[in-house]
Write a structure and sequence with these properties.
The chain is built from 16 helices and 13 strands. By secondary structure, it is α/β, with parallel strands linked by helices. The longest helix has 24 residues.
């Protein structure tokens, strides 16, 4: 494991009682930056321990990627004695992350989600749900792909006229996890002033709707229903994949200066001189004509030479790499975004702090690898 000084959240005590992805990812973010995170699991364990293959030390790689820097305590919260031990942990905890069903809480004698902060006034209670506990969709189960569908994301993903396509990565769960971690930090900042904790209500649905950009805002201001656009951008042209004689390149040109540079490399100085393509607004309005001209030009170009030349000139031109190429890239290694060690192999820490850097101190825990002490606390002194 990496050896570092205390992280930015050293001393923060977190009970991570969430399952699967969004909540555990939030707990891992806090743990990466020094928090003492205790993962509470039932006798069967978090079900994503079985989301494989591949498996490492009995748990799936999927589980391991969002549960490092934690210890595991096994509690059967359906049993009154274990619930009391769980509540005893909350007496000294700063943060609780959970995604229990409201019906489950009530079966445990907890009338509503506000009960936690009412009974543990300094606690930051981060509650993660699919759609919230109230409202037309309130209490519905939340799964990444289903929420993508209900939040409109499938309707705008893929090629026009083709079947709707789920975003390949679980973007809703991961975004919700990031929002949850941010919510915890916001609530902690407020507690510095007030001395009181509060509940952070974070839902998959809200997170999904919040990232439907720019399609949602475009609809709200135009009344036009967005449709799938493949790799195109609704508001920027050129912004697409272009095939060359050798490799495909993703070109993302966000202003007129870059468009002029791109055309100079392509030997098409006539395009930015054409009033139809001189500004981004004009290029969007005349998208089809410009795209056809660019397709023909790129097809006669050596992309292996053009891509590096464009990048060197400041024009975004990206080769389309597969995951193997990313995992083995020098830059991913340089940035510490792929970790390979005897104790842990997985993604790195994306947030780099200069004075209090994050670190990987603990491998993902085996089920119940930490035993509650006699006084029911497992937190570090």
């Amino acid at each position: 494991m990496q050896q570092h000084s205390l992280g930015a959240l050293a001393g923060l005590k977190v009970v991570d009682a969430a399952r699967v992805l969004a909540g555990p990812y939030a707990g891992q973010i806090l743990g990466d930056h020094g928090a003492d995170v205790v993962k509470v699991e039932g006798p069967e364990g978090d079900e994503c321990r079985g989301f494989g293959p591949p498996f490492v030390n009995g748990s799936s790689a999927y589980f391991n990627a969002v549960n490092r820097n934690k210890r595991s305590v096994l509690l059967d919260l359906g049993q009154e004695g274990d619930r009391e031990r769980f509540f005893a942990m909350l007496e000294t905890a700063d943060v609780l992350i959970e995604n229990f069903k409201l019906s489950t809480l009530r079966a445990w004698g907890i009338p509503d989600a506000k009960w936690f902060v009412d009974n543990f006034p300094r606690l930051i209670h981060c509650r993660i749900t699919g759609f919230g506990d109230e409202g037309p969709y309130g209490r519905l189960p939340g799964y990444d792909a289903a929420v993508q569908a209900m939040a409109g994301l499938l309707s705008i993903n893929g090629d026009l006229g083709a079947e709707p396509v789920r975003l390949g990565v679980p973007v809703v769960d991961l975004t919700t996890g990031m929002n949850a971690a941010m919510a915890v930090l916001l609530a902690l900042q407020a507690r510095h002033r007030t001395g009181r904790g509060q509940m952070a209500d974070v839902s998959l649905y809200d997170s999904a709707v919040s990232v439907a950009h720019p399609f949602l805002t475009n609809y709200l201001h135009s009344g036009k229903v967005p449709r799938p656009s493949g790799n195109r951008h609704a508001n920027i042209v050129p912004y697409n994949v272009y095939k060359t004689r050798t490799v495909a390149l993703f070109i993302a040109v966000a202003n007129d200066r870059l468009f002029t540079k791109l055309c100079a490399h392509l030997g098409r100085a006539d395009l930015p001189a054409d009033a139809r393509f001189a500004t981004n607004r004009a290029r969007v309005e005349n998208r089809e004509q410009l795209e056809e001209a660019l397709r023909q030009t790129f097809e006669n170009t050596d992309g292996e030479r053009l891509g590096p030349a464009l990048l060197a000139d400041g024009v975004p031109a990206a080769p389309i790499l597969d995951i193997e190429a990313v995992a083995n890239s020098e830059h991913a290694r340089f940035r510490g975004m792929v970790v390979r060690s005897p104790d842990y192999t997985g993604p790195g820490i994306p947030i780099k702090l200069t004075d209090t850097p994050g670190s990987i101190r603990l491998a993902p825990p085996t089920l119940g690898n930490t035993v509650l002490a006699a006084n029911d606390t497992v937190f570090m002194p």
